[in-house]
Amino acid sequence: MDAIRWIGRISILFLESLGFFSIFLLKSARGIFRGTWSRSELSKQLERVGVSSILVVSITSAFTGMVMAVQTIDQFVRFGATNYIGGVIALSMVREMSPVLTGLVVTGRVGAAMAAEISSMRITEQLDALRAFGLDDVAFVGSPRLFASLVMLPILTIYSFVIGIGGGYLYVVTRGIHGTVFLKSLEALLEPSDVFGGILKAAFFGVIISTTACAEGFRAQNGAIGVGEATTRAVVWSNMLILTFNYLLSTLLFGGAR
Q1: How far apart are alpha carbons 85 and 183 in whole angstroms?
Q2: Residues 171-180 pLDDT 10s
């Protein structure tokens, strides 16, 4: 009976959290269209999510592309399939690695910061002050962060495409495979629908990161300890939802692909 109660309690908490995230997302999205938020805050969030994440995304993407090349080149050479190595690396980066890794990296770097910032606002009653001034606290805080993540995650992912494929290209060329062979394989295997699918994933991940980070910040309690707990929950939830939606979107977008 204790095990059943524990499962039931966890299930209720899980569904409660998903419901809270969904409601928060709807309120934040509605706030974007109403414009009840600060334009200067939007600029700040665009810089935080996008520009400030370029370095970590560059390092992650470049070495991921090179690792993909390291893991595949020997097998392709052994079976005489070097004409396809560039396309396979590109498909892996565009469909899966770039959007997922960019989402996870931004979660750790930006999502945690968002959750900690809003948790502190919650603990110090700054959110209550916004309501006292007649402002919608969810829209004022959540909308610019949602909009910035929705815009910048796809841009960072496109950047990751280029850096990751470039890293694989550099490694393949150093192993004696002509660059023209690599580029022709890109033309043969990579299609616009693959790029669109990766960008669409990134947009979903941007929504997930901002929503979970802001929502957990709004649920923070118990002083400084609550700030740490909310930040941890935000990162854990974001990572779980990114990986879950990655599977669902991959099945929907690429499940019937060639």
Answers
A1: 10
A2: 999 988 888 8
